[in-house]
Amino acid sequence: MKRSTIFFISLIIGISFFGLLLLQARIVSSMVKMRKEQFDETVLRALDRTSRDLERNETFRYLETVAAKMDYNADNLPEEIETQGVEQSLQLGDSLLQSTPFQVKTQVRQPSKAAKALTLIPSTTTSLDAANLRFQEFVKNAYLYQKGVLNEVIYTVLYNASEKDLRERIDFRLLDTNLRTELESGGITLNYHFCVLDAYGQEVYRCADYSEEGSGYTYTQTLFRNDPSQKMGLLRVHFPEMESYILGVASKMIPVLVFTIVLFITFCFTVWLIVRQKRDTEMKNDFINNMTHEFKTPISSISLAAQMLGDKSITKSEAMIDNLSGVIVNETKRLRYQVEKVLQMSLYERNNIRFNEKEIDANVVIDDVVKTFQLKVTQNGGSLTANLDAEDAAIYVDEMHFTNVIFNLMDNAVKYRRDDAPLQLSIATRTHGSHLVITVADNGIGIRHEDLKHIFDRFYRVHTGNQHDVKGFGLGLAYVKGMVELMHGTIKAESELGRGTKFIITLPLID
User: Fold this and answer.
1) Total of domains in the chain
2) I need a labelling partner for 349 at 20 to 30 A (CA). Which of 148, 185, 451, 483 fits?
3) 388 and 464 share one domain
4) Contact status, residue 179 vs residue 50, Cβ threshold 8 Å
5) Is the distance from CB of 161 to CB of 28 less than 8 angstroms?
6) DSSP E strand stretches across 157-288
7) How far is CA 111 from CA 87, 117, 118, 291, 345, in A?
8) What residues have CB less than 8 Å from 476, skipping those under 6 apart?
9) Is the dihedral of CA 16, 22, 24, 26 positive or negative?
10) pLDDT averaged over every residue in the chain
11) How deeply is 412 buried, as exposed, middle or buried, from its count of CB atoms within 10 A (0-12, 13-18, 19+)?
C-alpha cells in the first residue's frame, strides 16, 4: 500500500472521529444547558409559590385575629340589639358603612337572627310587594357592606400589617418548610441555604450554614410584592451542589466518550504501526539490496582470483600467486566480517547473543584498535589521533564486542568522510566520576538533525538504497547501541551537517 493511500484513509477516519467527538460534545453541552434551564424554571416557580404562600399565610393570620375579635364582640352584644339588627340594617342603608365595623359585622353574621327580624314584616296580601322591596333593599345593603368590609380588611392587611418588622411578619421555619416542599414537588432534592434581606439590603435572617462560596448558584425572590417598596423583603437561596447536579446529566455520556476516545487512540496506534511497519519493510528491502551488493563484491573478487589461479593458460609468477592469494584471503575476511555482523545482530534481536564479560583495560584495547585502523585511515588520506587520558580505564565487558563497537564507529568515520577535506579522526578517553567516557569524533559530512534521532534504528541509513556511493546494511549503529546497553552503558551522538559527528560512550568503571 502506498504512503499516499495510507495517509488518505487515515485522514478520512481521523476527520470522522473528530466529527463524532464534536457531535458528542455538542450533545453533552445541549443536555447540560437544558438541565440548567429546567432547574432555573423549577426553582423560580418554587420561589414564586413560596412567596405567595407567605403572603397568604399572613392574610390568614390577620383574618383569624379579626374573626376572633368579631366572635368576642358578638358574644357580648345585648339581646335587644341582636333582635333588632336586621331592622336597623334596613333603615340605615348606606350609612351602615360608617358604623362600627364589629357591630355591623355581627349583625350580618347572624343569619338566624335576621330571619327572626323578617317575622316582623306583616304577612297580609296587601303588604307583600312592600316586604319584597324591603328585602331586596336589605340584600343590596348587605352586599355593599360586605364589599366595604373586604376592602377595609385588604387595606388593613396591606398597610397596617406592613408596618410590622419582617422578623414579626415571617415565620422562618414555615418559610423553610414551604420552600423545601415546593422544591421537592418540582423534583429538586438538593441542599440549599437561604437568607432574608430587607428593602435596604440588611440581613433579617440567615440560616446557620448559609454560604455562597464554591461553584453553586444563587437565586433571589421578592417578598410582599404588593407592599410599598420600602416594606418589601428579599429571599436569597443558594444551591452549593448545583453545578455537580447540572453536570450529572453529562455523566451518562462519559462511557460513550471514553469508548470513542479509546477507539481513536487505538486507530492512531494502528496507523502508527502501519507506517512503522511500512518504513521497516522499506528499510529491510534496502538492507537486502545493500547486502546483495556487499556480498557480491567480495564473492566476485574471490571468484575472479580463483579463476586466474586455475587458468593454466596464464603464466603465473610467484608474486602473482601471492597477490591472488592475498586477494582471496582479504575478500574472505571481508565476507566473513559482513556475515558475522548480520549474525550478531540477529542473535541480539532474539536475545540469544553470547556475552562473555571480563575485566579489561579500555585504554589498552582501544590502542590496539587504533594501531590496526591507522593504515586504513592513512590510505584514505586522513589522520588518526588517540588521547587516552583516562587514569582508570578498568571496565567489565565482552572484549570482542567492545572491540567491534570501537571499530564500527571508526569505520563509519572513514566511510562518511568529506571529499573536500582530509579526514581527521580522533578518539579519546577520560574518567568522569565512576564512569569511563569514550569519545570518537570526525570532521565528516555530518548528520541532519531530523536523521540524528533515527541513526540507532535497525536498517536505518541516512542515504538508502543506491542513492549513496557508500554501501552498508544499516545495522552498524544499531549493533553499537545494543552492545553498549548490554555493557550497562549509554551512547549518544552529536552532529552538525557538513562539520562532522561525535559519538560519546559512557561505561561504568569497576569499583
Assistant:
1) 3
2) 451
3) yes
4) yes
5) no
6) 193-198, 203-206, 217-223, 233-239
7) 13, 10, 11, 125, 119
8) 341, 408, 411, 412
9) negative
10) 76
11) buried
Of 193, 225, 248, which marks where a domain is finished?
248
What strands lie across the sheet with 217-223, from one edge to the other? 203-206, 193-198, 233-239, 217-223
What average pLDDT does this structure show over 83-87? 42
- Can you state the angle between helices 128-155 and 101-108, rounded to 10 degrees? 130
Q: Containing domain of residue 199, as a range?
A: 170-248
Confidence of residue 75 (pLDDT cuts 50, 70, 90): low
For residue 216, the one-letter residue type is: G
Q: Are residues 363 and 224 in the same domain?
A: no
- Range in 71-75, 186-190, 369-373 with the lowest mean pLDDT: 71-75
Q: State the DSSP H helix or E strand holding residue 279, giving kind and residue range, or none if neither.
A: helix 254-310
Confidence class for position 107, pLDDT limits 50, 70, 90: very low
What does the pLDDT read at residue 189?
Answer: 86
Task: Cell numbers for 183, please give them.
Answer: 422544591
Per DSSP, the three-state class of 116 is helix
d(CA 431, CA 428): 11
